[in-house]
């Protein structure tokens, strides 16, 4: 009796595997019965780089050197103002880490 039940189970599992394979072929899925980690889920996603790039407006800084010069000048003036108030960056080797190390 038990031999017949085992055969039925084996045939049923073979049918299920065959149906799964056919379904995967028809719908373009990837059959992964052993369940190892697969990168297929990530690779089938649409690439989003172009969409993200379209979202942001054109940046004039990349083309016009005068804009870059003005930005550099503004940065330098702000740094000078901070130094006058004593809020500028410390000289090399005199930052927070160096002060902690010397205590």
Automatic annotation (TrEMBL):
- Composition-biased stretches, type Basic residues, lie in 84-103
Q: Where are the transmembrane segments?
A: none
Keyword annotations for this protein?
Mitochondrion, Ribonucleoprotein, Ribosomal protein
In the UniProt record, does the keyword Membrane occur?
Answer: no
Listed InterPro entries: Ribosomal_mS33
Its primary localisation, in coarse terms, equals: mitochondrion
Q: Where in the cell is it found?
A: Mitochondrion
Q: Does the keyword Mitochondrion apply?
A: yes
Which Pfam families does this chain map to?
MRP-S33
UniProt GO cellular component terms: mitochondrion; ribonucleoprotein complex; ribosome
Superkingdom classification of source: Eukaryota
Family from the record: Belongs to the mitochondrion-specific ribosomal protein mS33 family.
Protein name in the entry: Small ribosomal subunit protein mS33
Which species?
Hibiscus syriacus
Lineage, broadest ranks: Eukaryota, Viridiplantae, Streptophyta, Embryophyta, Tracheophyta
């Amino acid at each position: 009796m038990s031999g017949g039940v085992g055969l039925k189970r084996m045939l049923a599992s073979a049918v299920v595997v065959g149906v799964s394979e056919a379904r995967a072929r028809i719908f373009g899925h990837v059959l992964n019965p052993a369940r190892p980690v697969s990168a297929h889920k990530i690779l089938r996603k649409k690439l989003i780089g172009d969409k993200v790039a379209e979202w942001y407006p054109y940046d004039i800084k990349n083309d016009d050197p005068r804009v870059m010069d003005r930005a550099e000048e503004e940065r330098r003036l702000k740094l000078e103002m901070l130094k006058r108030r004593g809020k500028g960056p410390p000289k090399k080797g005199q930052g927070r880490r160096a002060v902690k190390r010397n205590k």
